[in-house]
Inverse folding.
């Protein structure tokens, strides 16, 4: 098995050419009292703000802007904590990997619960999308353990792109209100369909990638067994 403390990080995202220099600049200009743990906490606070913004949007759509602010705060804390640790050369590989990704799962629970408790997306659809996200998380972590490659982007999409999509969706929620599409088998909110599509896409990527990876690992093990005979 791969050494989890020296894995290769793969983050080939669409906004990478913009995000990476921005994170490096922020890390270089962080005050001395700011540390990775505090940034992780800021990321969690951002998730709670997102939750509150979505829940309160039921009484006033203006709270969608609060949810969008939460996504920015969540990005700041979640994306910068590891960058700051690497910049200052104060990495704690095992602790950092464990805390960063368990906290990430906790934050996603609150974010998608908030979306499901808003008037724009049904709770069941939001929870299905959460399942898809957690399945992808399992895939990433198991792949890291088995191959040593920590791949957090698929098809140029990563956490940053998902946050941008969410903010754009909030703008659509605010200006477009609750819209529905009528099918022969029923009428469904537009945003339910969009969020459901994202959830099914995540589950689909998980299924295809898992099958492909399992096949490749099987061939590797077969060659190793043959060479050892």
């Amino acid at each position: 098995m791969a050494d989890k403390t020296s894995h290769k990080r793969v983050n080939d995202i669409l906004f990478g050419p913009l995000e990476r220099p921005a994170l490096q600049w922020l890390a270089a200009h962080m005050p001395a009292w700011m540390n990775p743990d505090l940034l992780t906490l800021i990321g969690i606070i951002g998730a709670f703000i997102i939750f509150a913004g979505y829940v309160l949007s039921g009484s006033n759509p203006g709270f969608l802007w609060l949810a969008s602010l939460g996504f920015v705060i969540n990005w700041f804390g979640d994306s910068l904590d590891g960058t700051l640790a690497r910049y200052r050369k104060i990495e704690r590989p095992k602790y950092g990997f464990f805390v960063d990704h368990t906290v990430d799962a906790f934050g996603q629970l609150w974010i998608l619960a908030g979306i499901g408790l808003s008037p724009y997306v049904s709770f069941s659809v939001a929870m299905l999308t959460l399942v898809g996200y957690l399945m992808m998380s399992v895939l990433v972590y198991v792949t890291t353990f088995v191959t040593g490659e920590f791949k957090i982007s698929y098809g140029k999409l990563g956490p940053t792109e998902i946050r941008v999509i969410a903010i754009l969706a909030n703008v659509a929620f605010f200006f477009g209100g609750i819209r529905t599409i009528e099918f022969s088998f029923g009428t469904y909110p537009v945003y339910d369909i969009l969020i459901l599509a994202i959830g099914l896409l995540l589950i689909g990527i998980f299924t295809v990638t898992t099958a492909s990876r399992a096949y490749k690992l099987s061939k590797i093990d077969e060659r190793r067994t043959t060479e050892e005979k």
About this structure: DSSP finds seven helices and four strands in the chain.
